[in-house]
Amino acid sequence: MQRLFDLLIDLIKWIFDFLRSVAESAIGKFQEINLFEKLIVVNTIAAFFAIVLPMARYFIFETYFTINNPLAVHLIGIVVVMFAAMYFPGLKTFIAREALNAYYLGWVIYIGAAREISKAPYEITFGYYLNLIVPAIYMVLSFLSFIVYRD
Which residue, of 2, 67, 98, 141, has the fewest CB within 10 Å? Predict the structure, then answer.
């Protein structure tokens, strides 16, 4: 029984050390990147809220029902690309970042302007505007990072 307990303690220590080393590596990488790339990482918090907050709501049966972001999966992909692009600086990466964010922004504007978020009569909520702001901030920060810190 004591041996099993010792193995369990060793496993917990190993997991804790592994997680600590991953966290130290992530913090070290964060400290190495330039200011605009750091702001891109911080903008990911806003991107998370843009993904989970409802884009619209409608009133039926004396209750408000919310409509989720139909493009949320694409924004998750954009966040992954924005993180991966930190490891591959250059013109091609910059163009890919700008093109993806512009494409997403175009679709968000389109579904809002065409009233295509839902077939139900709805009103726009803060989540929709956040879906406009996040890719715009990504585009501005990517541009500034490329212009100021290009090789």
Answer: 2
Q: In what order do the strands lie in the sheet with 63-67?
A: 63-67, 56-60, 123-124
Looking at the structure, tell me whether residues 74 and 109 fall in a common domain: yes
Residues 139 and 88 reside in one and the same domain: yes
Beta strands of 1-151 (E only): which ranges? Answer: 56-60, 63-67, 123-124
In this structure, what are the phi and psi dihedrals at residue 138, rounded to the nearest 5 degrees? -55, -45
Same domain? For 17 and 63 the reply is no
Is the same domain home to 3 and 23? yes
Tokens of 145: 């990072």
pTM of the model: 0.74
Q: What is the pLDDT of residues 37-94, one digit of tens each?
A: 888 888 888 888 888 888 777 777 877 777 777 777 888 888 888 878 887 777 888 8
Q: What is the band of 151 on the pLDDT scale with cuts at 50, 70, 90?
A: low
What distance in Å separates the CA atoms of residue 125 and residue 20, rounded to the nearest whole number?
A: 39
Counted domains in the chain? 2
Whether 117 contacts 111, CB under 8 Å: yes
